[in-house]
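This follows on from our talk about sequence and fold. Please put the record directly below this note.
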Amino acid sequence: MKNGEKMTKDEFKEFQERIGWGEEFNFYYQDEEYWISQNSDGCYLTKVKGLFTQEFNTKEQLFQRGTINGKRLSELYQDIDW
């Protein structure tokens, strides 16, 4: 659920760690909902509206290559509502 709080740098680091533990997350960026999920085949960054999904083999690839509007997650975490 969207709580209107912006993610801090420390929270983004924790977010990355928790993905590694197998947790799934939803978040909002510019009023659009996204999901980060994973299974035995890899990690996924999905924009809910339109169901656009980016697929990655590892969580490291997800955070290195996953983008929203041309920006990597590490470049826009401070604008993520969660």
Notes: The chain has a mean pLDDT of 86. Strands lie at 25-29, 32-39, 42-47, 52-56, 67-68, 71-72, 80-81. Residues 9-20 form the longest helix (12 residues).
